[in-house]
Amino acid sequence: MSIPKTHYFEAKPAVASRPRPVHLRLGGLDLELQADRGVFGSRGIDLGTMTLLKEAPPPPQSGDVLDLGCGYGPIAIALARVSPEARVWAVDVNERALELTRANAQTAQAANISVATPGDVPNDIRFDAIYSNPPVRVGKGPLHALLLEWLPRLTPGGAAYLVVQRNLGADSLAKWLAEQGYEVSRLKSKKGFRILEVRSGS
After folding, report:
1. Which residues have CB under 8 Å from 166's CB, separation 6+?
2. pTM (2 decimals)?
């Protein structure tokens, strides 16, 4: 699988570390997190992530929840704080991102976050919900492979919530997911982003 050399898709980012604070303000949350170069959204929490957190349904109160492509952890932390009895898996290939997520989870007092590389998530774990601002810039092939790896791990009745820019192929991705047998709904279209709900087909 060929992935473009965009640094935050690499396990070990080639760019030098330069940490900087970013703020997560959402509902009752007002947290200062640490971001860094070589990690997605390093200049601030991006609009797509904030749109997903504001517009997608809240996570289940218990069970396992996945933040796929967690970056430095804003989605995982928001989910974990809303549902403290759930276990939130924060998954990324980027080692710098995972280190930041661990530190940010501790700062946010979100002890129910499990930070992991994709290979470190036990195979028997099934997710009641998946939330993701997926890495569309890796290209269609790698993105499809990523979704086909994780979407089958939804529990019966579980759903994935994906935020994708309209001009970066949200509608074509929705069509492709439907062709794979998933039930796909557009929950929201806001500020150039689509929130897609994806469920296993009958």
Report:
1. 189, 192, 193, 194
2. 0.93
